[in-house]
Amino acid sequence: MAENKKVLIAEDSSVIQNLTKKILMMQNYSIHSAKNGKQVMDILAKEDFDIILMDINMPIMDGMECSKAIRSLDNKEKANIPIIAITGNAKNYSIEDFKEVGINEYLPKPLNFDQLVETVKRLSS
């Protein structure tokens, strides 16, 4: 069980956000959410997280831009938070594209929730 690790879910789909939230809360994670990359940056300015789940296709600031912005933060602890990309359009990007902007791993949509929990546990420990 995760002892109240904090997860930030960046996802513009309420359905995916709510499902992910419920599943991770059952694992004792503390969940915060954002609908776009700008909200992620605003929330990160005020709070610390153990891991970020990042949708790639979001309005205002997409997941690729947001990941790049996180990696260039002055606060090294925040700049190194593990980021898991979640996307239905992975074929538009290669794993190298993800690595280039600082994404640690990606999970394809539709999400396999067992894989999600396993990946979050592994990267947030």
TrEMBL record:
GO molecular function, a single term = kinase activity
- What does the record list as coiled-coil region(s)? none
Q: Which UniProt keywords apply?
A: Kinase, Phosphoprotein, Transferase, Two-component regulatory system
Q: Which domain of life is it from?
A: Bacteria
Q: Which residues carry this modification: 4-aspartylphosphate?
A: 55
According to the entry, every stretch annotated as the Response regulatory domain falls at 6-124
Question: What processes does the entry annotate via GO biological process terms?
Answer: phosphorelay signal transduction system
Q: Decide whether keyword Cell division is in the record.
A: no
Q: Specify the protein name.
A: Histidine kinase
Q: InterPro entries this protein is in?
A: CheY-like_superfamily, Sig_transdc_resp-reg_receiver
Q: Does the keyword Iron-sulfur apply?
A: no
Which Pfam family name is an example for this entry? Response_reg
